[in-house]
Amino acid sequence: MDLLKRYLPVFFMLALVVAVQLVTHFTETTFYLTQLTMSAYYSVVVIGLCVLMGYGGQISLGHAGFFAIGGYLAGALTTHNLIPFRDHGLVSFLDKVGLLVASKDLYGGDLLTLEPWAACITAVLTAGIIGLAIGGPVLKLKGHYLAMATLGFGIIIYRIALASAYFGEADGISEVPGFKLLPGIEVSGSFGARVLNYYIAWGVVIVSIVLLLNLIHSRVGRALRSIHGAEEAANAMGVNTARYKLYIFVLSAVFAALAGVFVTHYNGGIGPSEAGVMKSVRYVAIVAVGGMANLWGALIMGLVLNFLSLRGVFGSYDDAVFGIILIVIMLFAPQGILKINPWQQVKSLFTNTRGLSREETTE
Amino acid sequence: MTPELFIQYLFAGITYGIIYAIVAIGFNIIYNTTGIINFAQGEFVMLGGMTAITMNAFMPMPLAITAAVVITMVVGALIEMVFIRWLESPSVLRMIIITIGISILAREAALHIWGESVRALPYFIGNEVTSVTILGARISPQVLWVIGVCSLMVAGLSLFFKFTSLGREMRACAANRRAATLCGINAKNMVTLSFVLSAGIGAVAGCVMSPITYSDYEMGPSLAIKGFTVAILGGLGNSLAAVAAGLLLGIIEAFSVSVLPLAFQDAIATSILLLILFIRPYGLFGSREAASLKEF
């Protein structure tokens, strides 16, 4: 019964995903699928961050950095030509093992690059290792210090992407090839594969959310919530708080990097704006709107807000909208907009225990 | 490196360093009275500079700068009254997110008012090529303006906090808010005042630095992160140590240009920040025991 309750929304979502695709098919609005696919990938970052922030209580203002590590590495490894280094020991070894692919570039020249699967694994592993390396010292910090340290990490990644020729400086990386997951299933931005890619993206989302749902209902999830509630108490009860915080930090970094890899292959490129601080803030904003410790809220809000933003609904006020969302949510509904109970609000207007009851009901 | 070049780099370092120190002091003033790190601190500097540039088109420069500083102070007060004053003991996470939101809003507003173009106030004395020779190095008089004005502000602030009754009341709130309230100090007004004060000094710094460093709508975040680095280096809440730390960071940055590509300059300050947070989060001059009693 409990399991059914946990997975019922997943089946509901699956049905909705198929329904949306069918609707766009019959109304000939399949162009929406492109943004829906992108939003799906961004939502993977958001739900990963949601577990870190909402359940673990640790803020991260550097998740765009992990996204960029994934995206940039996957992009660079599958795009940069290895032919000049052909005689190098490592390259010839990779060639022998079959991890390299030969192809033709735009002008018909020979191109030798890393196989996307290998690049993907390298990228995600790197993000995980970096997360592990910085997570150790960073997660010892609290509050402002944690926020600033993760922000600093994000800025360093942004600067590296912007300043190194290998990552294309201000232009970023373009002409990234598709990513063949299985024969016939390829992540790419080609026009014909739009519907397929829509389903790939949502497949990734569903796998991610099932993983995270299981995680937060497990021992780890309970440990995380206890850390969020009272770290000292959790420690005293024998929860290894440092290890669980690090574990979830690395996990969310890996989620972000994975999303980065997929988005880069889907878009055929990545630019430094993906690594920018504003992106990190945006992820935090979405988690906040979704209601911090609410995976489904984060997923829904990630989908809706990213979709609207990608459609250009907010125009030149895009960043401003996210700024306003952050402030308004944090001022009036720190538990997220899905937790707002309109009736309660109306009732509280007419009773004079308003200040008291609001704090109590939202906690 | 010739001695002249050395002096040249040194002055560049001091100029930037003292500006970082002013931003750090802005952080400290607000942190001391509220326990909040105001992520929008860099935006005060930006607002001060940009407003002065616009005002300068209509009035003489001293008046324009005064007006810009007053306007920024009013903005600081409004921010505090609208977003912070009425929250009952909000969590740190909530305050971080709110001030980040404020900084985004300020930046976006500036983008829509002034556009993306880079502007600058005219030099206070002479122009771009005017220079005075100090120990063989050629220094723009504006550099001396920046150093002079910022030093005066630091001195003025320490006198204010030490000798005026208003300054003492603010310090009392910092030391123990409840006790200060019991002594009849209106703690809420002191918080507003701290926002006004740190907006004011930020705006002054934004005006004097504008001719050399230029102003644009997105200068805030990088200043804020450097100011925060300096505030931590000196020990959060300790304003005089922040000056020393600011000069240190400024000089390190200035000399790093001769070794590293310019593109990595921002990464240096950030790396120092991470390093100091990991190794000595209580600052170069702070003590571990005192820091462990504080709530971050």
What's the gist of this structure?
With 363 residues, chain A is mainly α.
Q: How would you sum up this structure, described in words?
A:
The complex is a heterodimer of chains A (363) and B (296). Chain A is mainly α. Chain A has helices at residues 2-26, 32-55, 63-79, 89-97, 116-138, 143-163, 194-216, 219-229, 231-236, 241-267, 277-290, 295-310, 318-332, 342-350, 354-362, and strands at residues 100-104, 110-114, 173-174, 179-182, 185-187, 269-270. In chain A, the strands form three sheets. A two-stranded antiparallel ribbon of chain A has the order 1-2. A two-stranded antiparallel sheet of chain A has the order 3-6. The radius of gyration of chain A is 22 Å and the shape is globular. The two termini of chain A are 28 Å apart. With 296 residues, chain B is mainly α. Chain B is built from twelve helices and two strands; from the N terminus they run ααααββαααααααα. In chain B, strands 1-2 form a two-stranded antiparallel ribbon. Chain B starts with a helix and ends with a helix. The chains are: A mainly alpha (363), B mainly alpha (296). Chain A binds chain B through residues 57, 59, 61, 134, 137-138, 140-145, 147-149, 151-153, 155-156, 159-160, 162-163, 277-278, 281, 284-285, 288, 316-317, 319-320, 322-327, 330-331, 334, 355, 359, and chain B through 37, 83, 87-88, 91-94, 96-98, 100-105, 107-109, 112, 221, 225, 228, 232, 261, 263-264, 266-267, 270-271, 273-274, 277-278, 281, 295-296.
Amount of helix of chain B = over 70%
Q: How does CATH name the architecture of chain B?
A: Orthogonal Bundle
Largest sheet of chain B: 2 strands, antiparallel
The CATH architecture of chain A comes to Orthogonal Bundle
**Under CATH, the topology of chain B is which?**
ABC transporter involved in vitamin B12 uptake, BtuC
Total E-strand runs of chain A: 6
